[in-house]
Amino acid sequence: MTIRTLSGAALAATMLAAVPAAADFPDREITMVVPFGAGGSTDIVGRIAAQALSERLDVPVVVENRGGAGGTVGTQAAAGMDADGYAITVATTSTHVVGPLTNASVRYDPVEDFAHIGMIAETPYVLVVNPDLGVSDVSELIAMLEEAPGDLNFGSAGQGSTTHLAGLMFLAATGTEMEHIPYGSNAEATTALMGNEVQVLFGSMPAVLSQIQAESIDALAVGTVNRSPELPDVPTMQEAGVEGYRASLWLGLAAPAGTPDDVIATLSDALADSVGDADVAAQLASNGAEALAMTPEEFRTLISEELVTYGDIVAAMD
Amino acid sequence: MDLFANLAIGFDVALSPSAMLYCLIGVTLGTFIGVLPGIGPLAAIGVLLPITFHAPQTEAIIMLAGIYYGTMYGGSTVAILLNLPGTAASAVVAIDGHQMAKQGRAGPALVMTTLSSFMGGCVAIIVVAGFAPPLAQFALRFQSPEYFSLMIMGLLAAAVLVQGPFLKGIAMVVLGLLIGTVGQETISGLPRFTFDTLYLYDGLSFVVVVIGLFGLAEVLRNLALGADREKVDTRVGWRELVPTKRDMKDSFMPTARGTGIGAFLGILPGAGPAIASFVAYALEKRVSRNRRNFGKGAIEGIAAPEGANNAAAQTSFIPTLSLGIPGDAIMAIMLGALMIHGLTPGPQIIQNNPEFFWGLIASFWIGNLFLLLLNLPFVGLWIKILSIPYSILFPAILSFIAIGIYSLYREPLDIFMVTGIGLVGYLFIKLRCEAAPLLLGLILSPLLEENLRRSMLVSRGDPMIFLERPISLIFLILAVLGVGAVLLGSWRASRKPQTEEGSAK
């Protein structure tokens, strides 16, 4: 904070002094921005990571919820915080891929404006259907869609949301048609599926898991490369015959661009160690998320690649 | 019926010393935080959620629930005493409650709030305990067309809510509807009136609008009055603190009707709890024999919305717990808290964790009892707030508003926004335009539009969908009958020589 008020010379002096001090990182509490409201699935995953990081770095990691506009408000704020490692943010498919692609008001670059730290977890999209539809696997669903193109509805958590794009990806991969009905949130879309206003939904795992377990909706496939430990009997899209469909919601950590490399390395090591911990993985799993480790470079590459994949879908949308 | 066996399990859990302690802590914290202007249930739960992480799971949820309804009680208190509502529900209660406070009847108003809330809560608990699973299934039959028709009925409530000149009131509703269009539109995903900033992407924050239009505008009005500010007689004896026999008699049926409306609307995710108070107030204003006093300190105008508000707060746990679907932002936080504590919400929760489910239900009742016991002796204390000199009170109010608003989203712009809206609110007071209908318009706007457009998508453009679905049709018929009654009423009033000022034209 005070750095901004210092003169240029003093600033340079402070920065010189700060370089060796990085070896002491961290020596005070770290603020973790969660760009979604308290109690949501991003918040839960963020808090699990914060707790694990705090144990490994021996400083408190304080979660600060700054929700709004699909996570882009908090992410924009985080991009402008001090690049000293004491401000980090939860970066997700929404905030670092879909938001910047679909929201013209986003002012940050998800690749250039951040120093990426690593991955926490991914949550699969699950293709779920209303049981009254009477289909038991993906091929039956595709057959039904081919017979009556555009008759069925699929729901999403909003136009241009991650769940909408996951649906469009499926339609593109299978060459089928469905009417898109947008809702305000994952919870609303799930309710609509249970009430049969929409017959198909590409839901995020935390939003639909308990309903699948209660058999009030049927899971046909998961969008991840491997089967989900939470739903071992549900095939992946590849196994179900939909080639090239890979979609999941991931959650990682990033710091503002300019955060020193050794600070990022410290954070990244602590994060990788946390994610590799069996207890942390179990906590994540009980919330529908699978622990996933990635180096800063891998994470950065993933974001760049997905910006292209999703960018194509968004471009085809209008 | 296993109702009693189930409740026995529940009370066994809820009456354990630790559960009662956490419940007491929750309602006490909730009440005191709710009394602070600018901090509603959403902010309070958001801020206090981390505290509960360290409590055992059942106790943690009981405490959170206690905070939730404690805050609502506290919110009503400050709405009545200082005209500083923080939620839509307390804005409705403030209409007549604050008038009563000005007339030196703050005591009866606060006691009645407590009693009506208690009654609303108690009845709703029986509904939750007895019929949660079938009601949750019923709620699922509410899809876009049903919600749209329900909102149409809500618009009618707005027409009834209007106190002064009808046209002015309708203009305020329309203004509310228009303000509700700010932000990203769900169906097309396109931003409207956002001035290319992310800040307005989710629309104007509801709390910011309520606090600005009511709280801040009220502070400005009082300051502008200066020495002319109405003196409130605060040296009231204990006898005048309690409602009279007549108050009790007048309030009973309104509370009962309000409770019924609240219990029903609370079950519907998303829409219900927000409009329950408005609908209850509007209905009372139509059916009450005392309707001419509404807006001037009618105790029925407190009893009905308070009963509705609390009943809706209890029954809104039904979809959250038994379907695992949060009805609103507060319930979403509760759901998150359940998951953090390793409980999976959903239909299985009743079978898998019966002690938890029934314990929570029973603790609702205990929490309500605590609130009753806590609030009745405090009424005298709360009223003392009114005797604080305004020169000391108003900076405190402004600070609390600023802290409350900032703590909600940590967004500095919200402070500027609330200031601007406060100035607009003061202008409304000067122009004698009421803010309550605007608020209802603001709540209904996105719900009306989204559900209309979604229904049309589902029906592939056929508007008959609203008439073909029975529940939707019933709401539309009720709306038409309601409009007829309003028109008939104003036609009759226009034929009668006007004896009282302010009666509908």
TrEMBL record, chain A:
Which CDD domains did the record assign? PBP2_Bug_TTT
Specify the signal sequence span: 1-23
Q: Which Pfam families match?
A: TctC
Q: Which UniProt keywords apply?
A: Signal
Family, similarity comment: Belongs to the UPF0065 (bug) family.
Q: What is this protein called?
A: Tripartite tricarboxylate transporter substrate binding protein
Q: Which organism is it from?
A: Rhabdonatronobacter sediminivivens
From TrEMBL, chain B:
**Domain DUF112, which positions?**
20-440
Q: Which UniProt keywords apply?
A: Membrane, Transmembrane, Transmembrane helix
Residue spans crossing the bilayer: 19-49, 61-82, 118-140, 147-164, 199-217, 261-283, 323-344, 356-376, 388-409, 469-491
Any matching Pfam family: TctA
Q: Is Transcription regulation one of the keywords UniProt gives this record?
A: no
UniProt cross-references to InterPro entries, sorted A to Z: DUF112_TM
PANTHER family to which the protein is assigned, alphabetical: TRICARBOXYLIC TRANSPORT PROTEIN (PTHR35342:SF5)
Supply the name of the protein. Answer: Tripartite tricarboxylate transporter permease
Native species of this protein?
Rhabdonatronobacter sediminivivens
